[in-house]
Amino acid sequence: MKRLLPLMLIPWLLACGERPAAPPEDTWPWQITVLDSGHSRVFGITLGRSTLGEAADRLGHGYKLALFEDENGRYSLEVYYSEITRGGLSGKLILVLEGDQVDLAALRRRAASRQVLGSGNIRYTLSDADQLAVPSRRIVGLDYIPYVNLDPEIIQARFGTPSERIRVEAGREHWLYPDKGLDILLDPAGRELLQYVPPQDFARLVQPLRETRPASENNK
Predict the structure, then answer these.
(1) In whole angstroms, what is the distance from residue 77 CA to residue 92 CA?
(2) Cα(12)–Cα(155) distance, rounded to whole angstroms?
(3) Residues facing 144 on adjacent strands
(4) Distance (Å) of CA 13 to CA 7, 39, 182, 183
(5) Tens-digit pLDDT profile for the chain (220 aa)?
(6) Which of 41, 47, 53, 95 has its CA at a distance of 20 to 30 angstroms from the CA of residue 201?
């Protein structure tokens, strides 16, 4: 039986065809501007340059902020939007903020509270003083989870042919676009995940995939 397309997917399909006028800059997830400096811009955010305060002025201030510690003791400072809508499409957005491990460990020591999650990771609520200072931090990564499921054909039409594909467990596959600083995780059983970093930092994003997968599983 032929699968019916959800109504929310229509803007993606219309964008693949002829349109009378170009959309506003930074509307769609595939509108990635790569700068000569090695940075990139998506959704109006210049990764590695824009601050959280600047992004919030564009996206809204209704976000959640937390410091996370994974099972290996590594920290990440993240801002979560449960929903943003761009060009008629909605999805979840996570902004990863700058900070080396020493800096983030200091935030943990000053944290107001902690919660152990089901995954085993730990979520910390920052102190009031640290929360006030966070808007000045730069955004170094962006994760976008659209509410619509994206077929490979649509991804290829809008983002182009990936330079490399890496298969992981449960039939999931990473499509890599190093020139755009983009990793798209295709998940047949769930939502797709689009991860953006400055192209100059792409190796850092992909290195964990190469370390955990045998060479025979990497397809170009």
Answers:
(1) 17
(2) 9
(3) 93, 194
(4) 10, 29, 21, 21
(5) 434 444 445 454 444 444 445 445 678 899 999 998 889 999 999 999 999 999 999 999 999 999 999 999 999 999 999 999 887 889 999 999 999 999 999 999 999 999 999 999 999 999 999 999 999 999 999 999 999 888 899 999 999 999 999 998 878 899 999 999 999 999 888 889 999 999 999 998 888 777 665 444 544 4
(6) 53
